[in-house]
Amino acid sequence: MSVGIEKVGFYTAPYYIDMVDLAKARQQDPNKFLVGIGQKQQSVIPPSQDVVSMAANAATNILSDEDKQLIDMIIFGTETGIDNSKAASMYLQSLLGISDNARAFEIKQACYGATAGLQMAIDYITLHPDRKVIVVGADIARYGLNTSGEVTQGGGAVVMLISNQPKIIQFDGRSTFYSKNVMDFWRPGYTKEAKVDGHYSNDVYIDFFNRTFKQFLQKFDLTINDFSALTFHVPYPKMGIKALRSVAGEDDPSMESIWHEFHESIIYNSRVGNLYTGSLYLSLISLIANSDTLSAGDRIGMFSYGSGAQGEFFAGILQDFDNSKLKHAVDQIINNRNQLTISEYEAMYKQGLIDAANTANDLSGDSSRFVLKGRSDDKLIYRDQEMNIDF
Q1: What domain of life (predicted)?
Q2: Is domain 172-322 given the CATH code 3.40.50.2300 in the classification?
């Protein structure tokens, strides 16, 4: 039986900064960000958006009424939780009008959460082929202003509809994984900003990729040449480049197509920034939306990584689908953002750190359908601006 991604949606907030502007403001050589990190732009998430509203905006244009009635599970992968108890999926279920006869829960393991959800969804559909599952990867990456991690911030959401009609990618359930308790990245409960041991995290990431990738090749009797493309968790493009270099030489003629497809896979990430749980899947979207050389039947490798740490390598088979609609939708979201000055970005960033029992967010600059209106008596209030309804 076939199982995989039937539909996929993406959203990021309507604001961004240019990395050249940030470099100049931080008195850095712009090439340190453009080349050393591989980042061109970075989405900036206003207080009017959080992981729930971004996921709702990513999902609303891909789910039909029939899909909503067939969805048995809403699996929300995030490390930017909006409540220490209540799952983000509960709000999302309400905003999207998904059937109440569904399981809805949240998964946390750094940037790996969406992949854990995807594997669970594949197993569920295998046993219940007439049903559907949505898997969300949504996050806001924050490291603080004027810090070494500032250039790797960003945010957004990817939503995947998993079913027995894999119109985009088909999975066969084969994967290899490796986990170990390490302190390369973490976010204490008292702060919205992450803590990271950058160099150590890079080393662990590459080690976990090599372990899981080589184990996959050995276990399933494959070589790197059996893949048409390799995609990665991309908190910033240079990290994916370093991982790919560890198994494929850039000057090796036999690896030319692998490198070509890789560069297609980081086009969107280089303009949006870090999505944490959604980063691998934005890279996958970038690949299939922008590549003009892939075709149905091609095997695409995927490396998922979550600090702390969990790594997994798996693969999917590209299906025969028209990528023009997906490309148009994502290009429109990214190209229509408003550029902020660095001072405007800093003010918006600081506003996003404020928590209070009662807040009212400025919605005037956010025309997205779903927004976070604020908080009343410690209760989050979301708004569907198209329907003029509060939740």
Answers
A1: Bacteria
A2: no
Give tens-digit pLDDT for 50-69: 999 999 999 999 999 999 99
Tokens encoding 26: 């931080």
Helix (H) or strand (E) holding 208: helix 198-219
Q: Degrees (nearest 5) of the Cα angle 137, 91, 9?
A: 35
What is the Cβ-side half-sphere exposure of residue 382, based on CA atoms within 13 angstroms? 25
User: 173 vs 121, 122, 295, 317, 332, CA distance in Å?
Assistant: 11, 7, 21, 11, 33
**Per-residue confidence (pLDDT) for residue 240, from 0 to 100:** 97
CATH architecture of 3-169+326-390: 3-Layer(aba) Sandwich (3.40)
The 10s digit of each residue's pLDDT in 308-365 is 999 999 999 999 999 999 999 999 999 999 999 999 999 999 999 998 999 999 999 9
79 token code pair: 């490390």
The CA-atom distances, in angstroms, between 114 and each of 145, 213, 279, 294, 302 are 27, 19, 10, 25, 13
Q: Which residues are catalytic?
A: 79, 111, 233
Q: pTM of this prediction?
A: 0.97
Contact 12, 125 (CB under 8 A): no
How many Å apart are CA 137 and CA 200, to the nearest integer? 24
Q: Where are the domains positioned within the chain?
A: 3-169+326-390, 172-322
Residue 159's H or E segment, with its range, is strand 154-163
Fill in the DSSP letter of residue 101: S
DSSP bridge pairs for 339:
16
